[in-house]
Write a structure and sequence with these properties.
nine-stranded mixed beta sheet, binds flavin-adenine dinucleotide, 42 strands, alpha+beta, single chain, 29% strand, 18 helices
Length: 810
């Protein structure tokens, strides 16, 4: 098989990995073009010092890195290794960082990467330049090491060439040709190349290439300082290029690698130095290479002083070389991968570190050849994940610069971005401010986490206080709101959830084909179902409300869902993202009907408006679409209206709700209540890598309704369930965990936590976790690794709250 005609733009470490992986899968009509000389093209890979630290909060990123280590570790170039497994050492000089190293040890363990915590003395044993009096401890990752990026480029290109891949150096791509929304080829300064697929692996030049097909690519090249010392006397006589572990001193935004008797020092502590991709000089005009800017010693001065403190032996050395080297940053620190939404055949693999390059190459190759990626969950990397405002140049620049600043920071899982804010305001916003809301941010929306005005609800309630880390972005009011929601009635602003309208004569057939549910039911039906990929992996969980014969409202998780629908639509369906023009308030709690019925011009009785049904009605003067469902597990409705009527809707409910003790509830309470009810959250509890059965969502799959995407793969997956999303409870209220922690059976890590929080109704901590199926038995005692502690947890029957569904169906 030769496969389609592929042109890969860029022979950096990403383009080379992709050429190798694609050709290894049997595609060989592949041309790699690069404007520079290969393999040292002048791009970022040409001067990367090649440190590969695998640990990452993201499981996918850690897995990309692990694959890079495996692959490059087995590669050589004329007998020269492409990877030196010298190990990685991260040190802490503050108590906060030491705690963070424990958290990172937890991630590593959860993702299956060996790591060990070290005392200061052990740090100095591993890396003799480290002053043990300066550090409080360290984390050793024995399989980390140094990639030799240029060697890796050449070795992977050689392998690709041996399978027929062509590599054209000094060919600059000037344009990408398209016809009827498809790529047809690229124009270079040496002529045209026909192509069915073009993959942009152009690194910092990516936005320039993407613009050729009208695609905005949200990344910014930023200059990053890398300096090299001359001989460090304490390293005199070292003849191996590197034997010392690569070293990270994140408290000071620094990292180090050995080069014979000197050191390479990378620094993230300086001011962000963004560069417009259009201002990058050409290969021929560049003084050194296009991705290298002149070193600015003034910016490096604090790094050098701090280096002397951590590694005193460096005081006897000098900085002899330095660069401000360019590489790509993105708004969420994740790569950009996938096919352009509007140009078939134009793909990108961008903003990828050397660390993740081989993993990304493999993921892209699987995606291109098989139509989906089976080795990695790519939902965090997909190019189509962004909301429209997240593509605005101002936003991209601000976020990318901030991510440069924060690259080594200790980030709390709930920590919101600070700038640019506020961006998106729901129509309830002014009312929420009046209630002294504490706002976090979700997809740009200001979203209340709790309301200061609810402090009065604390009277007479004893809300347990979690540990320090879990108590950040938390208030006891969260607990009071959760309890009050189960007692009276609460308003929850659900505007941030994505709403998509699907209409047209083909709408029913379209949704039947895309979802696991049977949506061809009466007008007014609501169906909870899933979007699956062809391999049966969960792409999203959605609710589909049939509002007319050919009209559906889909409650979705984000832009990836919108993109997935668009990609599968034909001209018999119209798909519209109606989120921005509408709003939604959840009116939930045992008194919800008492509140809503008198205000409504329709029957909201239990018989007249059943659970999982939808209706159009008026609430006072406000036209609404009401869906009887609730994520918090209480009676109630989601009320949707247009943005212009939102404030009126809130005011109407609020005024009438006073006699029922109405409150506004924040996201903190919402999360606690949904965990008690066992409702899964896509992206955290389950992702592309999980199937419905292991995620406990088999009930949402209607195998007998006819064919749908993913159906064929499900039969096999249903028969071989090896892991399960499992509910654990934690008795000690202080022991709330936050997610991504390892779960242990004795000394063995057996899984990891997804969502977690405290259940105020049940009085216990809750942690959902992926566990081997044989351990997912109620009553089983396990431990969760939380920083430097073990937290005792027990597998519980779920849902923990109202399993008989009496509250919801009342
Ligand atoms: C100073 C510095 C230190 C770093 N340290 C590390 C580290 O320790 N560990 C780590 O993992 N990462 C590190 N990085 C990041 C890493 O180097 C990059 O993320 C990675 O090399 C990007 O690889 P790439 O293949 O995407 O891009 P590149 O290597 O830049 O390749 C892109 C290629 O596209 C070609 N191209 C662009 N436009 C055109 C065109 N119009 N026509 C033809 N060809 C074109 C370019 O010539 C280039 O060869 C560092 C980066 C810098 C700058």
């Amino acid at each position: 098989m030769t496969g389609p005609r592929v042109v890969i733009i860029g022979a950096g470490v990403v383009g080379a990995a992709l050429a190798d992986e694609l050709s290894a899968r049997g595609w060989s009509d592949i041309t790699v073009v690069d404007q520079g000389p290969v393999p040292a093209t002048g791009g970022s890979s040409s001067h990367a010092p090649g440190l590969v630290f695998q640990i990452n909060a993201s499981k996918t990123m850690a897995e990309f890195a692990r694959y890079t280590v495996e692959k490059l570790g087995a590669l050589d170039l004329d007998g020269e290794p492409c990877f030196r497994q010298v190990g990685g050492l991260e040190v802490a000089t503050t108590p906060e960082r030491l705690a963070e190293l424990h958290r990172r040890h937890g991630w590593a363990t959860a993702w299956g990467i060996e790591s060990r915590l070290l005392t200061p003395e052990e740090c100095a044993e591993r890396h003799p330049l480290v002053d043990p009096d300066v550090v409080l401890g360290g984390l050793l990752i024995p399989t980390d090491g140094l990639a030799r990026a240029v060697h890796a480029v050449e070795a992977q290109l050689r392998a690709a060439r041996s399978r027929g891949v062509r590599v054209l150096e000094r060919h600059e791509v000037l344009d990408v040709r398209t016809e009827d929304g498809r790529v047809t080829g690229v124009v270079t300064d040496h002529g045209e190349l026909a192509a069915d697929i073009v993959v942009c692996c152009a690194g910092i030049w990516g936005p320039r290439i993407a613009r050729m097909v009208g695609l905005p690519l949200p990344l910014t090249p930023l200059a990053h300082q890398l300096a090299w010392t001359g001989p460090v006397p304490a390293l005199a006589g070292r003849t191996d290029e590197a034997t010392l572990p690569i070293l990270r001193h994140q408290d000071a935004d620094l990292y180090y690698r050995q080069r014979f008797d000197g050191l390479g020092i990378g620094y993230y502590g300086h001011r962000p130095m963004p560069v417009d991709p259009d201002d990058i000089v050409s290969v021929d005009k560049a003084e050194v290479m296009p991705s290298v800017l002149t070193f600015t010693p003034g910016d490096f001065a604090p790094a050098w002083a701090e280096t002397h403190r951590l590694l005193p032996a460096t005081a006897a050395a000098e900085i002899t070389e330095g660069i401000n080297g360019l590489f790509s940053f993105t708004t969420d620190q994740m790569p950009l991968m996938g096919e352009a939404p509007d140009v078939k055949g134009f793909w990108v693999a961008e903003a990828v570190w050397v660390t993740h390059s081989a993993g990304v190459g493999r993921a892209m190759a699987e995606w291109l050849v098989d139509g989906h990626c089976s080795s990695f969950d790519l939902h965090e990397c997909d190019l189509s994940r962004f909301e429209p405002h997240q593509l605005a140049p101002d936003y991209v620049l601000a976020r990318d610069c901030q991510n440069y600043v924060e690259v080594y920071d200790i980030l709390h899982p709930l920590q919101p971005m600070e700038e640019p804010r506020p961006l998106r305001l729901s129509p309830f916003h002014s009312r929420q401010r009046e209630l002294d809301a504490f706002f976090l941010e979700a997809s740009g929306w200001e979203r209340p986490q709790w309301y200061g005005a609810n402090a009065r609800l604390l009277d007479g309630r004893d809300i347990p206080v979690p540990n320090d880390w879990a108590a950040r972005y938390w208030s006891p009011i969260v607990g009071a709101e959760a309890l009050a929601s189960r007692e009276s009635v609460a308003l929850y602003d659900m505007t941030a959830l994505k709403r998509i309208e699907v209409s047209g004569p083909g709408a029913v057939a379209f949704l039947q084909r895309l979802t696991t549910g049977d949506v061809d039911k009466s007008v007014g039906s609501v169906t909870y179902c899933l979007l699956l990929d062809v391999d049966g992996g969960i792409r999203s969980d959605i609710t589909v409300a049939r509002l007319g014969r050919d009209l559906f409202q889909v409650g979705a998780n984000g832009n990836l869902d919108l993109d997935w629908l668009h990609r599968h639509a034909d001209d018999t369906v119209v798909i519209r993202d109606v989120t921005a023009g509408t709003c939604c308030v959840g009116v939930w709690g045992p008194l919800a009907r008492d509140l809503v019925q008198p205000l409504a011009d329709a029957d909201f009785s239990n018989e007249g408006f059943r659970y999982f049904r939808a209706k159009r009605a008026h609430i006072g003067a406000v036209p609404v679409t009401a869906l009887r469902l609730s994520y918090i597990g209480e009676l109630g409705w989601e009320l949707y209206t247009t943005a212009d009527m939102g404030a009126r809707l809130w005011d109407t409910l609020w005024a009438a709700g006073r006699e029922y003790g109405i409150i506004a509830g924040g996201r903190g309470a919402f999360t606690s209540l949904r965990l008690e009810k066992g409702y899964r959250s896509f992206g955290t509890d389950m992702t592309f890598e999980h199937d419905p059965y292991e995620a406990g969502l088999g009930f949402a799959v209607k195998m007998d309704k006819g064919d749908f995407i993913g159906r064929a793969a499900l039969a096999e997956r249903a028969a071989s369930i090896r892991r399960r999303l499992t509910c654990l409870t934690i008795d000690d209220p202080a022991d709330v965990v936050m997610g991504r922690e390892p779960v242990y059976d004795g000394a063995t890590c057996v899984g990891y936590v997804t969502s977690a929080g405290f259940g105020y109704t049940i009085g216990k901590g809750i942690a959902y976790a992926w566990l081997p199926a044989e351990l997912a038995t109620p009553g089983r005692a396990l431990d969760i690794g939380y920083f430097d502690r073990r937290v005792a947890a027990i597998v519980a029957e779920e849902p923990l709250y109202d399993p008989a569904m009496r509250r919801l169906r009342a």
